Amino acid sequence: MATLNVTITEELTLNGVDRGSKNNLSVGSVTQVLSRMVDLPANGGSGTTDTTVANFRTLVTTADSALKDDDVKYVRMTNLDSSNDITLSLQLAANGGADASTTASVLLPAGQTFILGKAVGVAAVDDDAAGAVTSLVDLESIIAVNGNNAIVSLEIFIAS
After folding, report:
1. Is the distance from CB of 52 to CB of 59 less than 8 angstroms?
2. Are strands 33-40 and 102-108 parallel, antiparallel or unpaired?
3. What is the 8-class DSSP label of residue 65?
4. CB of 158 within 8 A of CB of 72?
5. Are residues 52 and 40 in contact, defined by beta-carbon separation less than 8 angstroms?
6. Residue 52: its pLDDT value, please?
7. Is the pTM of this model over 0.90?
8. 116-133 residue pLDDT tens
């Protein structure tokens, strides 16, 4: 087993005052890692291209390239492009054995990073109320959506 150490550093001086921050996170008992870079295909000038970049299940044998959702401790997606945004579509399921029943999408601007701390009980969607949702569901997969007429590179790092 290993320990993943993550450091997030923000450097900003505003009106002569240091407003930066540095935060450290140690994630213990890591035994597996998925680390890859994916070139998301260009949309060809219209529509979007969708690429499933990670699958999560209660059993790794139930989907191609699945990660065991209970074991996931850290998920990072970084848009490596210098000018093109992409969308991450979080496919959500009531439990890790089910297919996705809802989705939540987030914009990932060029050069920026999206981080999750686990894959079980991470998000929820409620389309008929504006209140806070506290019954969170599991991540079934992550789909990267490229609406640009250019290839966009996405870096994926998942520690379990």
Report:
1. no
2. unpaired
3. T
4. yes
5. no
6. 96
7. yes
8. 999 999 998 887 777 788
Strand order in the sheet with 102-108: 66-68, 49-57, 138-146, 86-93, 102-108
Measured CA to CA, the distance from residue 88 to residue 123 in angstroms comes to 13
User: What is the reported pLDDT for 143?
Assistant: 97
Q: Is the pLDDT of residue 37 over 80?
A: yes
CA distances, 122 to each of 41, 73, 82, 91 (Å): 28, 12, 29, 11
60-86 average pLDDT score = 93
Give CA 109 to chain center in angstroms: 13
How far is the C-alpha of 103 from the C-alpha of 132, rounded, in Å?
17
Residues 124 and 138 sit within 8 Å (Cβ to Cβ): no
CB 4 within 8 A of CB 73: yes
Mean pLDDT of the chain: 94
- What is the chain's alpha carbon radius of gyration, rounded to the nearest angstrom? 17
Of the ranges 40-49, 58-67, 110-119, the best mean pLDDT one: 110-119
Parallel/antiparallel/unpaired status of strands 102-108 and 86-93? antiparallel
Rounded distance between C-alpha atoms, residue 102 and residue 135, angstroms: 13
* Inter-residue contact 87 to 104 (CB < 8 Å): no
